[in-house]
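New to this. Please check this record:
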Amino acid sequence: MSVELYQETAVPAAGDGAPTVVLSGSLGSDRTMWTPQVPALLGAGYRVVRYDHRGHGLSPVPDGPYDMADLGADAVALLDALGCRQVHWVGLSLGGMVGMWLAQHAPDRVASLALCCTSAALDPQPWSERARLVREHGTRAVSEAVVGRWLTPGCATAHPETVERLRRMVEATPDEGYASCCAAIGGMDIAGGLQAVSVPTLVIAGEQDVATPPEHGRWIAESVPGARMEVLDPAAHLANVERPEEMNRLLLDHLKELR
């Protein structure tokens, strides 16, 4: 059963009739990870929706474990509640996985995909182990390692305030929500359906992303008909935070081609 996700919508000067971009974030994040993208998208005339996954931020925390169908159903319910027939989906990491699920299971709701620092297939064992660790010791037990993968060392050294903000974000994520979304990632089954994805797709990877290395993005781009691949260097897992101007340019160029 879907849950009512917490979301924030920003409307451009053009009003509610503007095309909608949905921003879907990483495991352990909340909607504020997309703060660097909102002004650029608004300025280009898009209605911008960013939300918290179930078990994250201000969204409800149902008992787990969850699967990708749960997260996808939540997204469909969100679009229904907002009156969005079709949206441009921008997803990073877990958000990209949800986007790929939607493009396969609710293709009429997706006008385009931007899949950032994500994967369609990951070894389930580490995700099971991480879920167990978080259930036993909380998100504090993984926050330092997680943020260490989110930014390159150079960025982390230059911006300690960003490191601290992201660490607090991870630690504020409910333990059950984080662990249950680990189960969704470990159990996802979306790789086999990528060739059926028919919407314009941009894949963006970070050259120094050790969580979902560029070869994962290349595999997605080679599997989705007509997909285009871009690599940001330097950039780790949260490339939208580390390289906001470059990420915004890639997203706006991608969206501009569809208008």
